Structures are given as C-alpha cells and as structure tokens.
C-alpha cells in the first residue's frame, strides 16, 4: 500500500500513477480531547483501516503528476536521525575539516542519535527555505523509517515488526560548530515523501539504491547495503534510550556526496521501490517566522 497526503490534507492511495482520494477513511479515527496524544493516530490505526481504505479506492482520482504531496506522516511525535551512518560519508567528513566540525565526526556508535524538531517537517510540494544564507546549507538523502507500534527496548531481531512503512527523507543541514539538532531543525529542513510504502510491500531493505541530484547533476548515489547500522540495529539503538511511538520517524543516515544547495535549485531524490520526488529551494523571506 502506498499512502499519501495530498492537495491540502486529502488522504490518498497511490496506484498505477493515480492518486485515489480515500479521505473519508479518516472518519473512522477516534475523536480526541485535550490533552491530545503525542503520536500519529492514523499510523497507529493503520492496520485496522487498511480494508476500509482499499474499499474506497474507486473514488475520485488525481494523476500523480498533478498532485501536491505533503508529508505522508502528519503528526510524528519525534524525528530521530542517525549521523554518519555510511562509511564513505564518514571518510568524506573526515577529509573536509573546513566543512565538517571535528567535534561531530565520530563513529555513530560514539556519537549516538539526535532529534530534529517536528516543526521542520514538510512534504515535497513545499519548498525548502534557506536561512543563514551566509553559511553553507547541504542536502542529505536518506531512507526514512516510520514506526507503527509503540516499542521500548526492542531487540534487532524483533525490530522490523514495529515498522509501519518507509519513505524518502531529506535531512537539510546548515554547516557549523553548533549541535546537529539545532542546525538541522530549521523550518522546512526535513522533507518526507512522496508517500508511505507499507512495510509488507518493501520486503528486504538491503540493496535499495538511493540517489539525489541537484539541477540534473548527480550528487549522491549509494545503496542501503552500505549502512553501518542497518534499520533493525537503529531501532534497537533508539528504543534503548526512549520509547518509540506510532508515527515516529527514523532517518537512517546519508551517504557520501553531500553538497551545497542554494535558492533557485531543484533537488530530485529517489529510492528503489519508494518512488521519487522533486523539491524546490527558495530563500526564506527576510524576518520570516513561519
């Protein structure tokens, strides 16, 4: 199943280059009162909504080429990210001390994971808006994992059973000496899309090709088999520190080839069996706070 949000909050099921509007399936979600849950209700209830979503797939349709895709996860409680989780990216960072702060270039097992603000999240129809134009801002393409069930202290052997699905992720970052969570949490600096591919459709995670180009120039091209810590190991690592909730997003790390992006650029990102997305780069309006 390929699920998306499109055209101002419509829920879609993507099949054969067409988006089927299945928004009425959301009516089955429970009404909530304050205090609201800290997780994503749709992701939590997805197993029981699948049949309803499938039954609605004969409703109104929109071509994929005409749909405006938002993040396929609307309300993640947290975005967890893995730094330097590809060997060649670690070597690349070590070789460029003028770009990558020495304090941040260590093995992932030493550095650990970091959190990104959920306010940084957008979908591919929205532009990445560059702030701090006097500093270098880089692209990073990553496999994104969406947690489907609450888990704490899960083993790597059981970890994939807690995954709802996968999508393409872009982890945009301002280079500098500050902590990663600050430099990567600017508004629009986390992009997810174009849709969520449920775990049952993806199967083996090893051997997925991923690539990113800027204005037609290939910058990053790698394979998930090159991850230092694979998805099961990352879930085990993350859940040993805190509880993972339905809708939480785990960014698994970026390969070598990261490079600068500027207003006017267009990124094209793709991952095998997950699709592709194009994202525009703009300058943030001066004094903007939204």
Describe this structure in words.
This protein is of the alpha+beta class and 290 residues long. The chain has two domains: 2-66, no CATH class; 79-283, Fumarylacetoacetase-like, C-terminal domain (Fumarylacetoacetate hydrolase, domain 2, Alpha-Beta Complex). The chain is 16% helix and 31% strand. The protein contains six helices and 18 strands. The strands form three sheets. Strands 1, 2, 3, 4, 5, 6, 7, 10, 11, 13 and 16 form an eleven-stranded mixed sheet that branches. Strands 8-18-17-14-15 form a five-stranded mixed sheet, with no helix packed on it. The chain has a two-stranded antiparallel ribbon with strand order 9-12. Strand 17 (266-271) and strand 18 (275-283) form a beta hairpin. The chain is globular, with a radius of gyration of 18 Å. The mean pLDDT is 93.
Q: Calculate Rg over CA atoms.
A: 18 Å
What's the CATH superfamily of the largest domain, by name?
Fumarylacetoacetase-like, C-terminal domain
User: Which ranges are low-confidence, i.e. pLDDT below 50, for 5 or more consecutive residues?
Assistant: none
So what's the overall shape?
globular
Helical percentage:
10-25%
Strand content: 25-35%
